[in-house]
What we know:
Structural class of chain A: alpha+beta
Number of domains of chain A: 3
Oligomer: heterodimer
Number of strands of chain A: 16
Number of helices of chain A: 15
Distance between the termini of chain A: 58 Å
Helix content of chain A: 40-55%
Shape of chain A: globular
Distance between the termini of chain B: 16 Å
Radius of gyration of chain A: 23 Å
Strand content of chain B: 15-25%
Strand order of the largest sheet of chain B: 1-2-3-4
Strand content of chain A: 15-25%
Amino acid sequence: MLATQLAALVDDVPAGVPQALDLVTGFDACLVTGFGRVGDDAAAALTALAAGVAVTPLGDRAAEAAAKLAAGSVSDEQLTVLAAARSALLGAVHDALLDHADSALGRTRAPWPEEAPATPDAPRNLLEGCRSWLRELAITGWRGVDHDLVSSSAQVLEAMWGDPRLRRLAVLIDGLAAELRASAPIATMDDLPERRWADLWARAMLLCEAGGWGGGPVDTVSGRLLLLGVDVHEHATAVQLQVHALLEVRGEAAPRLVRTGPAVAKVDTIVGPAIWPLFDAHPVLLAALTDNRTVEVTDVTLLGSGDLLWADERAALGDPADPFVTARLRLTDAVAPAVPPLDRHPVRLAEPVLVEGYTVDGDALVLDGHRLALDLDRLPALGPLTPALVTGSTACLGLLRWDAGQWALQPLAVHATVKRKPVPVHVGDWASGPTDPRVAKAVKAAGDTVAVLRERAGRLLRR
Amino acid sequence: MNARLRSTARVLPLVRPRKLAKVPFVELADGRLQGVVSSGSDIERVYVSSIVAGTLTYHCSTNNNRPCGGLRGTPCKHLLSLVDEAVLQYGYERVGRYLGVDLVEVPDAVALSRALSGHEASAAATVFSRFLRHLAYLEVPESRDPLPELHWFPAGGVR
């Protein structure tokens, strides 16, 4: 990313974004006190939200739902319509921000094909059970959530974990319930994460319609993957690797930007470098991350969303390839994927960029006088990147993120100075085990957490 | 930055790594600090230990509800291990706050163990089944399909 590109990115806010976010903020405040008791402010916020989508196909239904909720009648249908209206506004914010980033970076993006989305055949009873818990939350409001209300999700949650078609919902509800449990009683909590919990609630309401939605057209492809870096998502009971890479498909001139990586269930005590062994079933992926190698993939599934479904048995290690060189030489030509309509939310924005020749001032990098925040809270404990390495770096390969009105760079790798020598440091460097002797020793001393729990599980579960 | 308006605001502090062999399971849930402690002598046996928030009454028994022999008017070694490991996992402040103790009067794990009030029997079955559910996560088949919802849960923890 050049200084002029950074300037174009941060010096201008796309039209309409602050106004759309204000409508969302108004709705989110309603969830704090709940729909059991809708005051004048809340009624006005609901009307404003509905007015915000008036010209869309949701318009009439949103206006009707807002009026009914304001009058004190709460039903699943009205809550779903309003969750959809909120999601539509954030979808528009996402689109404006992504367009803005694409034009600043000069990035080409594939169009989303118009086609009827495939609806997964998920069990209705579980979706209904989950929705009724979400309805109780909405009626009660975050301030009223207590241990009993949180615990009442346990049964449906357990059943959802048992059905792979409901994995997205299970992972989401588990994450939300854990936060509510740890925060309860919320009545006395300072600074509620209003946007966050409303996001999670609204996404869950949408998922309760059908259990999920597809990632677009399904293609079978072969080619060479050039890795850029790995992003890690994690809560107490799930962890996902998301490798950003360029895929050279045979016969195509420009590489495609793709995301790939498996997700596994875990427990809260598996943290830091102890997470890597959970992905032992994917030796090619782990080796490619450890050693910065290319990967040849054969007949793998690529979705229209740019998600390549990782299949280790269809992957073979190739030559070494420096992700910084890959980014420098090929990233500008790469074609980025479209985003599935229902996944459009600013939280999903994660555009790989390479930034070089900057200085660091506090928690921001400065390039020719233009500042970009460094998201140092997103450095995962399973890798070697530290705030000191990032703030002492001269080149950063990272993901452009946006949250709470601000762009930020999430580092995936840096060129840092270690013992007065310039060295590259990547999040995935420890995929085959920590290379820092101190960390390796600490991990060894803690014992193999996964093995201990598997032994306990094996002994106690099948009684 | 304003945490109220942040989609990725961090609500839960990251759990700290600890050795799991002795106390494989600890949680703050259902108004209790509760967990499972491996028996020192029998690999097939585990103890279920719990401390109730507020009253600080405690209980310890095997998973088959046989009372722990170490409970003779004072907390047994399983309960002491439970407290120690909970403090390692969550930090003392979070444990103390959850149990509703005054963090000035009861400032650490040793003081907390002394502040436990008395024995009050409770069923081990609920805790044990929560432990089994906890272990069952490790048996869930992995997902090849992307989970876009996890973008709300960025890994962190270095800082």
